[in-house]
Structure formats: C-alpha cells, structure tokens
Amino acid sequence: MRRPLAVSLALVLLTVLGCRGEGGSAGDGGVSSRPDEAVDVILVTIDTLRADALGFAGNREVSTPVLDRLAAAGRVYPNAHAHNVVTLPSHANILTGRYPFEHGVRDNSGFILPETVPTLASLLKQAGYATAAFVGAYPLDSRYGLGHGFDVYDDDYARGSSPTEFAMAERRGDQVIAPALAWWQSQSGKPRFLWVHLYDPHASYDPPEPFKSKYASKPYLGEIAATDSFLAPLLEPVLAGKETPALVPALVIVTADHGEALGDHGELTHGLFAYEATLRVPLVIWGAGVSPGRDERWARHVDIAPTVLERLGMELPEGLPGRSLLEAPTEGDSYFEALSTNLNRGWAPLRGVIRGGSKWIELPVPELYDLPKDPGEQKNLSGEERRTVAALRSALPEEAVWPPRKGIVSPEEERRLRSLGYSVGGGPAKAVYTADDDPKNLIGVDRRLHQVVDLYSRGSYEEAARLAREVIAERPELAEAYEHAALSLRQLERHAEAVEVLRSGLGKVVADELLRRQLGQALAETGRGAEAVEVLQPFAETGDAATLAALGIALSDAGRHAEGEQVLRKLLAQDGSDPKAHENLGIVLLRMTRAAEARDHLKRAIALNDRLPIAWNTLGVALYQLEGPQGADAALGAWRRAYELDPRQYDALYNTGLVAASLGRQDEARAALSQFARTAPPQRFEADIRKAQALLQEIGG
Ligand SMILES: [Zn+2]
Which tens digit of pLDDT belongs to each residue from 571-626? Predict the structure, then answer.
C-alpha cells in the first residue's frame, strides 16, 4: 500500500465593565422614548458593501427592498466611515467601540483580539443578555478572538479548502441566517443580542439565481440584491407591526465593514487605499426610540457600541472614543488606516483622519480632500491648504504611530511584528518611506498581482508563473509574487524550480514566514524533509497554526515522526477544531503504524471540513490497513471522494486500481488505473505508471 502524499498542494494565498445603570437624558439626536422592557439588539454587518450600492442610498441599478424598508423606518447616516478597509480589524472596531491602535488588531491575519478588551457581546452578556454570533467567512473565525462574550459563536462554514479551490472558506448568507433565526426564536422571552455577518458581496462576485441572470452585467450588485433577500426572514418579522418601531422592542443596526473600490483610483477590491469607495460605509439604525430620518452628521464605526450601550441605559466602559449617535451632536475626528500592504508588502503605511468634511491621508505623497465639494477625491489640496494640513496632521493620534513603539503594543501584536521583521521600539522596517513606496505609485504592481491570482484560479499556471516572475524582477521585496510563482510551478509539477524561486526570495521580502512555510511544503513534497525542517524550525515557537502544521509533517517526512506528532498535538491543544492539524496528525500516526488513531483524527478532520482530498486519501489507506478486504468498500469510497475533489490525488487513483483489481472489480479497476496512467506526472510516478499499465494489460484495459 502506498503511503499517502506528504502534504497538500494547497496554499490559501489570499491569500468589562458595563452594567445596567441610569439612562442618560435624551438629546435631540433622535431619541424620542425609552421603553421599560429590555431591548433586543440585532447587529448586521454586510461584508464589502459600498455605501452607494443600496436602493435607499439612491442606487437605481440594485433592488434592496428589505434594507430600504428598514432605512425608511429608521435613521440613516449617509456620512458614516469605517476605520479600516479589511474585515477583521473593522469588525473589532465595531464590536469594541475602539480604534485599531487601542485594541491591537491591525490586519486580517496575525492579530488576535485580546480577551481583556470588552466588546458589545461581553458587556451585554454581563447585563443578562443571551448573545450569539453567526459569521459568514474565515476572516472572522473564532480563532481571531471576536467570540469573547458570545454564548454561541457559529463559524460553521466548511473550514480550510481543497487544493483546487482558491478561495476563502465562506458560506452563503441564507446559510448564516437560517441558524441565526433558529437561535433568535429559541431565545425569545430573554433579552437577546444577535450579530450576523454576511460575506456574499465579497469577491468573487457570483450571485445565486435568480440574481445571477438579473444582474449578469453587474454581478457585484447581484450579490447585494441576494444578500438583501437573505435578510428578509430575519428582519421582516422584526419590521412587522406596520413598521411602528415603538411597538417592537428591538434595536437593529446595519452597516458594512468596508466598501469595494470597483476600479476607483485604480483599485479593484479593497485593502490598498482608504478612499471613500472603501472607507465610507452604509449605516442604518432602526428601533424603538429611534426617530426616523436622514442624519447627515459624520458618523463612525466607533460610535456604534456607545449608541447601543446608551440606548440600553448601560454605562459606557472608560475611554471609548465614540459617542452615541442618538444623543446631541458632537462630531469627533475619525481616524483611519490601511496597513495590509505595509505589513505584507513593505509599502508605506497609510493613516489619516477625517474632521468635518476634510480628509487627510498621510503618505509619502500626502493627500487632502474636501469631501462635501469633492466626494470623488479627485483634487488633492495638500499643497494649497497648509493650515488645514497642519491641523489634521497634528490630529493623528499619537498612539497610532506605525509600527507601534514598545509599550503600546499588545503581546500578540509584538509577536506578529517580530515575525514580520519589525523591531518593535527600534523603528520601522524602513527608516524612511519615499514616493517609490507610496501605494498610489504601486497600483500597477497591485493590478498585476491581481492578474496573477486570476490566471492561477483559471488554471493558466504557465502564464501565472511568468507574470509573477516579472513582478519579482521589478519588486523583489514582494513575498506574494514569489508565493504565486512557486504555487503555479508546483501545479505544473516543476517542484525544483518552485524551491529555487522561494529560496531566492528569502532575505529580500518583508514578511517571510509565509514564504518559508511554502518553501517547507515544496521541499517536503519532493522528499526533502530534512531541508524542510531546517526552513520551518525557526517558527517552532512563534509560528502560526498553518506553519506549525507544516513543521509537524516536515519532521515526519524527515523520519522524526515522534517530534512531528508532538508539534501537531501541541497545535491541537490550542485549537482542537483545526482540520489541517487533524489531517497532518492522521498522516503522521499512519506512518507510525498507529492506524486506528490515524483513522480517528482523519475522520475528525473530515467532520470539520469534508473537502480535504488528502484526508480522504489517507483515511482510505487507514481503513484498508485496519480492516483489509472487509473494509474495501469504505476505503474505495474514501479514495473516490479524494480524486473527485482533486483529480491530482494520483495515489488515491492508484490505490483504487490495486484494491478493486484484487477484489475482481475489473471495471472500477480499469477506470482508475487508466486515469492514473494517463494523468500522473511521469517524473514522480514512473515506476507506478509502468505497473499500472502492466495490470491494465492483465485485466484487459
Ligand atoms: Zn470585509
């Protein structure tokens, strides 16, 4: 029996202190009454939703009847802003009511919200609320710390992804709403706090029917129309009662974590810039005691938590930067940042502040816009309005310096920064960023990286590798370019070249943990386990889960099974619901001839995510080893699942051929062996292909 393939070819690139107290006095900002009974709270966050992509915002190309009804009966804030342009930090801002430099979460990966920071969930739970969250995609996985204070944190999308899938794990909006609604109904009678996160509008834009056909030329708007329809079963009953909020003891807040650029200023999606296309967000508040209308004041994500707490008559935690949007108007400055390309590409960090209608963006080529006069941010006034520039520059919070100085950085953040090559307290990775590092001047590189991902996801590996190498030649510090080049080469079975490309990037790129992890995987795949260990070992203490999973399997590849087992068990002790760790432990245990234990971990991996071809293949091997011909049906079923999920699971095809032939199931054997002989790469499977051909002759294939 063949041993299972060492590692997956896959690399996801993408990539308290509150208590019930006296309510404050009602101001003139929209509070008209305050019912005595407890108020239910529903927070809806829609990912990647532009402020101008909704019917109630004046968009005539999209149909959003549910949200339009909510907006018509609620209070709409057309000038609301996020503080980050990526998912995790933005949600941390909404839930904590604090800025990213206060709670410490600055990007999607590598940061965890510390449990010590109170959130709406932890505060409401303390006040006796039943609390639950239903999230739509991996960036909000419970491992990132947002689950603190929730009785239920449902991130039950299929975790991980198969090697042929090049997307983030996510679930459709209706699959988020169904369990959320069931929870909502099961808790009636108690005060409830429900947060739902719908990921649908995030790229790629592929709405379900009938929206797919109806919005064939505008699939992004199709996703939004679909999202609106998914919300109907949750929001319509709440809105019922002829939309008289005073009769319905509920507070509903709908917003987005960020928008989507759709080509604005040359940006395709989000995360690079902080122009209004991605920084401005929809915001609607509806409920008992909220007077309907359009509120033109500058509103912020950090105002949401104080709005909810004040509305419920609860005390605010100390030092929150926001204020209730329902109270008397006191518009504060709005801080914002976009640090992903600084962290991952070494480009200049982007920070800024909005005061009234003036928006200041601090970059090597600074920008100042007058938003009311110039909502498209076309005329940069930074050279003319010196006094405004000076005022806004000094309004940038001192603590928001980037990279942060020692003392204002959380241990998690410090660890992350160290792994990125930043020396915390010793100054930035680069002493001075110049116009060459300004993301505005690197938009062409960004577009080509998008093109590489696009080519890769369409299976054009040759072209993807070529374009990625062009980007490397121009910007040798971009880890992503090496990763994309190597990933494409690995798909083409050019493993030695992939290893070369990855090695050439070490020492040149900004964040090399991902690069080392992929190098470790590429080395392990070509049987160079000892070299893989050497590359990954430096991350044994500080590496993230995926790196430790790779180290575990590399140790085993190098023949150090017991050490590999130890690393993987440690990983599972931290997060027992990581399917990749269970998969790798299953492989290692099987190699140690502990097939029963291996089977249990592989089954656990598949229970967490049934789209893991390597887990299926290995499970087939374990079952056949344990039960022999009696277990053949189960083993053959597991192998079939493996190569149906990923046609490059050559071992599964070969195993199927051998076992089916031995049981006299000739048709099944013939089909598998001929597919194996036809598709398996000769350089890796030369001897097996010869054996398969001989066997085919024997059984008459
Ligand atoms: Zn997002």
Answer: 999 888 888 899 999 999 999 999 999 999 999 999 988 889 999 999 999 999 99
Cα dist. 684→492, 496, 663, 687 in Å?
12, 12, 27, 9
Report which residue type is found at 37.
E
Query: What distance in angstroms lies between residue 253's CA and the mean position of ligand 1's atoms?
Result: 17
Q: What is the predicted pLDDT for the residue at 30?
A: 43
Q: Which residues contact 640 (CB under 8 A, 6 or more apart)?
A: 652, 656
Quote the ligand 1 centre to 84 CA distance (angstroms): 9
Q: Is there a contact between 632 and 625 (Cβ–Cβ < 8 Å)?
A: no
Give the amino acid at 44.
V
Calpha distance 556→376 (Å, rounded): 55
Residue type, 585: L
CA of 609 to the centre of ligand 1 (A): 23
Amino acid at 409: V
Q: Interior CA angle at 539 toward 482 and 449, to 5°? A: 20
Distances, alpha carbon 69 to alpha carbons 65, 235, 350, 558, in Å? 6, 10, 37, 62
pTM reported for the whole predicted model: 0.81
Could you tell me the distance, in angstroms and rounded to a whole number, from the CA of residue 582 to the centre of ligand 1? Answer: 28
Measure 71 CA to ligand 1 centroid, in angstroms.
22
Distance 48 CA to ligand 1 centre (A): 5
| Three-class DSSP category at 470 | helix
For ligand 1, the distance from its centroid to the CA atom of residue 280, given in whole angstroms, is: 13
The rounded distance, in Å, linking the Cα atoms of 149 and 153 is 9
Give 272 Cα–ligand 1 centroid separation in angstroms: 13
Concatenating the DSSP letter of every residue in 473-501 gives: HH-TT-HHHHHHHHHHHHHTT-HHHHHHH
Which has the higher per-residue pLDDT, 492 or 401? Answer: 492
Ligand 1 geometric centre to CA of 257 (Å):
5
User: Ligand 1: distance of its center to the CA of 197 in Å?
Assistant: 10
Q: How far apart, in whole angstroms, are the C-alpha atoms of residue 655 and residue 666?
A: 14
Residues, CB within 5 angstroms of ligand 1 (ion) = 47, 87, 257
